[in-house]
Amino acid sequence: MRGPLTPFSLPAMSLEEGSYTGGKPGQQQLQQQQGGGFGQKGDNGDGGGVNNKVKYTMPGVLHFIQHEWSNFELERAHWEIDRAELQARIAYLQGERKGQDNLKNDLVRRIQMLEHALRAERAKYHKLKYGTDISQSEMQLPSASSAQDEYSSLPEGGADSEAPLSVISNVSWKQGRQLLREYLHEIGYTDTIIDVRSSRVRNLLGLNNNNNLNEIEQGQIESSQINGNNYNKRFSDNQGQCSPTKRTQQQQQQQQQKKLLDVESAVMANFEFLSEMRSTSDSGDVDMDDDGVDDDDDDDDEDDDEMGMADDVIDMTSICKFGPDDVDAEADEVVNELQLLTEDLSNKENEQNDWKVSNRDVFNKNSNNANWIKNEPVEMVDGNMDLALGLGELAQLTVNNESETNADIIDMKTASRKTWNAKYTLRSHFDGVRALAFHPTESILITASEDHTMKLWNLQKTIAPKKSASLDVEPLYTFRSHTGPVFCLAISKNGEHCYSGGLDNVIKVWSMPSANIDPYDSYDKNILINNLEGHEDAVWGISVHHNRSELLSCSADGSVKLWSPTNLKTPCLSSYVSDQDEIPTSVDYVRDVEGQFVASYNSSHCVIYDIETKSPITRLECSKDPTEMATQLIHRVKCHPTLPLTITAHDDHHIRFFDNNTGKMVHSMVAHLDAVTSLAVDPNGLYLLSGSHDSSIRIWNLESKTCVQEITAHRKKLDESILDVAFHPSEAYIASAGADSLVKSLSSKCLAVELSSNRAPMHGPALILEVSTKSCCELYHSVNSKFFNASCLASNNLSSLVGFWGGEAILSSTGLTSTELSENQLAVIVLGDLESTRERDLDLGFSSSLIIGLSIVCFSPVSDFSPDEVTAISHLLSTGQCCGISFAYWSQDGCQPGFETFWILDLHLSRTDGELKIITLTDMATEISQSKTICILAVVAGCFAILWPSLFYPMLKGSFAPQTHTDNIYQERTPVHLRASKASMHPALMEKGRAIPQPHIGPRHGSPTPHSFKPPIPGSRPVMGGMGGASNKITGGDGGSAMNILMPMYTIGILLFFVYTMMKV
Amino acid sequence: MKMAESVKKLLKRNKPGTKANCFRKWPDEPFEEMESTLAVQEFIQQQIRIDPSNIDIILTPPDSQEEGVWKYEHLRQFCMELNGLAVELQAECLPDTCSQMTSTEQWIFLCAAHKTPKECPAIDYTRHTLDGAACLLNSNKYFPSRVNIKESSVAKLGSVCRRVYRIFSHAYYHHQNIYNKFENETYLCQRFTKFVIKYSLMAKENLIVPMPDAIMQGIRTEEDGTTSIKEP
């Protein structure tokens, strides 16, 4: 029985193999067939060899049939599974479509609503303006309807839609947008709702995207499989055996057709609706349609330049624009969605065609597959590119939107919100100041000047103002060794060394003097560590990197050199000379990638080099036109600290942005009225500071590319004005250096920096830069960028603290849990307004093991906190390894000069063994009452002092007049001869002598001034309202006239008040 | 490069990448056409750039130039250029060799930069004097403006001159090679001497560095006496 069994066992084996290995039914069947054939053959051969006649035994036949049966069963099961899968997919897609339908309906309703409102508004406006009812809408109708025709024919015919769009002016677009926003607010669509909605849309969008890509990928895989199998002869020979494949293909095709129809109808509906909208809505909406149409136009090459960003940049911008909440952004998204759908459609059409072809004529599959190979990748690329373009355009659009809305908001609000205020003017140089550098951690500034010296300033060591209002800072140290003007300056990242280069071709390496050095200490020769000699002409630029010890310099001799600054013998490590360009003008390390630097050349190009291989990697070219290039000299090049972005300052008033990966220009803007000379990027990479020969420095929001603040800082010397600007790496200082030999230092009213650096427990300073003391809504737009930046920092493994601003940040930051803040990352969460968070859940949704420090800044007095809230916060902390919390509070009216602007309540919680211990809790209330008591006492004492000379003293002493003590009191009064002539008048009326300047007493250090208790001065009315600054409740001392009558009453009143307050306290 | 040939109106700028030999090489411009508020400084620097040895021209103010500002700006320029001499002295004038600020044996100068005048080594005296002069000349209190200078502040210039001159005299008497080298390049001491004589900022008997007669215009009084300490 052994012989006859073998023929059957063989196919069975191969069958099983087939069933296990062959993933696809077709393949399986093929193998089965093949196996069967082989089995038969083997059977024949075997039979021929052993026994010429084949014996069909009953068990053998039965066995075979059973095997066949089981095989078919197996296959059927497979098909069932496939079917179920596909059905699930259909259901999923249908559900998705339904969701989108709902969304669309929703939007349609909203837009109709808006439309209606708009129409009503316009009618009203028209009526108001012209006194008649409109015929405008009727006027509009014909053109609109023609447009409608055009639009409705567009999906099929793809009619050119450029013409009617160019008519629409930008202004009306903006107006329309503003109106829409207003209406949205009116009907109760708050920002948050819109935000949530837009994120939902985005989610859908993202899903769509993925599906799309998946499908494409699937298609690709399948095609390659088919393609690969094509060369397998057996496969192409046995066409008939392909039926399962065919079936699935058909199935898919059907499904796709169905989907296509759905999609098509949806798109059609959308277009109809859009064109409807166009017919009725105002020009703004039309423009929006326009965008949609533009997006729709797949072959729109115009956008290529703009869209030349790398995908990740686009992604980032699209992430960045998460914030915008206006309806237009959303509308754009919808339009974009449509675009995606249509793209989807076109892709599928292509696919479908190919499917059809492959199905219709399997024999020609070879050639068709060849087509696939040729066409498909290209199409994929096209599709992806379109996708990217679409997204990019979307990003661009929304970025624009944001910039515009930001601009609007800024227009409205900036007047009251000045982030940066002039703080010090550093005067000690004799000639133009060429370069600035801040110490990485301390508030130390070094300046380099054309007077051959560099000076070190400690911005915290100020000389108290005597006469002038501005504080004077004097240099602590003067670096003398250069024999020519000093052009460039850098401080090593640990703050131990500084480097300077200048006209004398030498780069000097200095050790950093102590921050508290005596300015007139004796000379120490060792302060100059090394001279880096090697350049043959003036050194114009120096750059250091935060984790490299090497120094880069560029010189007018045409070379960029890499130095090891502390190597005394052979400091020069390598030299980079460009063969195409002449002289480097500026150099900077690429910050987001290690081992690269960028140098700008006077040919107005930038080149990114690899430090090790010395070879150029990317060339950043802004213009091909040589005549333009001549005017585009790059004064300064800077790299973004976290993004692959290079920023250049040009002689032709522009600032340009380049993508490091592609070398393409991402953005270009006219930034100043004259040549832009200097750039600085804030350490978080959110703001850009630029200085120009037009004497102004400007602060730019890097995300929206809008100017946040402009400060006119310096005067011109010759034709030069501002030569350098700098951001402090960790504190809230910026500085500008001018040709007028001044350095101006500005600081922001940055409470949080102090707060976090002092208060964020145990973990060093936080990087919080932009702070407005008041409204967190103003910061709303930047919240998301901060948020984004946080992830950026986290991914770079920087152990920095990151601040989030505003109440909204809490909402957003819930997304920033485990994914973006990895272990060992620190976060400071600054809640802008606890008032607003009160309604919300204080559970921030952090996986709290990540929170290490928490700072809370709030605008409501801490004493207002209910115990519940404190418990909630501590609960939040107790769930994780959070080891500290700090509160800061400052008065509602913000900063007042000379006042301690906020009181900090320490509430240190430490976690030991799962238990929370409150270490210190300085109670705000008692402190306030203490200081209040002091204030009250002081005011009362002051009142007495006021009353003393004019009332009590004369009453007690009659006509006794003591000797004058004018020398002791610093007070402006009219001269003696004038006083004598008016001797008949009452002293109080005689003059309006200026009171002693209000003593600047904060609630904490309030103490009565000695002046108050000075002996009386006859002939002059002494100080009034001595303590007025400290307390609002007491407005004493307003008795300038009619003092005779009022004074006694006044005194009694004060006494009563005093007793009352004392009782109360 | 810096000449910016393509630009119609020539801009007086030192753009980054300017070669050393092109630095500040602008065509001369008459004072009247200088528009900026710092025209006096520009003018002085331009005259020096043209020919540092032509002291008379350098010290000739343009017509209608107010004298206070003229003196002030010149003194700024002197202090600035004296940095160059200080750099040279740093290498040679060590606290060991010159432990006191002296020129002739007649006086020991006390450093006025400290709360109580102090007998600083010569190099410290030099640095402190220059630093102090820089602070004074840039003081917001005395010289808040570079366009108008108060009469009371002009009086301060004399004391600055007196102290600064000691750097010249120390260099001359103790580091003659440095002094000669520096003087041949810049003619600074000659210019300074001429300047203080012209504007009577120092007593002639204090000008102890020998000068060509043209500068001193003859008279120089020798003063004899024992070494004594001179207050700043």
From TrEMBL, chain A:
Location of the region described as Disordered in the Swiss-Prot/TrEMBL record: 1-52, 139-160, 226-256, 276-309
Extent of the signal sequence: none
SMART domains: WD40
WD repeats by residue range: 426-460, 479-512, 532-564, 669-710
Acidic residues bias spans: 284-309
Cross-referenced PROSITE patterns: WD_REPEATS_1, WD_REPEATS_2, WD_REPEATS_REGION
Family, per entry: Belongs to the WD repeat striatin family.
Stated name of the protein: Uncharacterized protein
Pfam family of the protein (one): Striatin
Organism of derivation: Aphis glycines
Transmembrane segments: 936-956, 1042-1063
Keyword annotations: Calmodulin-binding, Coiled coil, Cytoplasm, Membrane, Phosphoprotein, Repeat, Transmembrane, Transmembrane helix, WD repeat
Residue span(s) of domain Striatin N-terminal: 57-194
A GO CC term attached to the entry: cytoplasm
Start-end of Polar residues biased regions: 139-151, 226-248
Top-level taxon in the UniProt lineage: Eukaryota
Molecular function as annotated in GO: calmodulin binding
Places the protein is found: Cytoplasm
Biased composition range(s): Gly residues: 34-50
Occurrences of domain Resistance to inhibitors of cholinesterase protein 3 N-terminal (ranges): 942-1065
Main location: cytoplasm
InterPro entries: RIC3_N, Striatin_N, WD40/YVTN_repeat-like_dom_sf, WD40_PAC1, WD40_repeat_CS, WD40_repeat_dom_sf, WD40_rpt, WD_repeat_striatin
Record flagged with keyword Membrane: yes
Automatic annotation (TrEMBL), chain B:
Positions that bind Zn(2+): C93, C98, H170, H175
This protein's record includes keyword Iron: no
Keyword Electron transport: no
This protein's UniProt keywords: Metal-binding, Zinc
InterPro entries in alphabetical order: MOB_kinase_act_fam, MOB_kinase_act_sf
SUPFAM superfamilies: Mob1/phocein
Gene3D superfamilies with a match to the protein in the record: MOB kinase activator
PANTHER family referenced in this protein's UniProt entry, alphabetically: MPS ONE BINDER KINASE ACTIVATOR-LIKE MOB
Descriptive protein name: MOB kinase activator-like 4
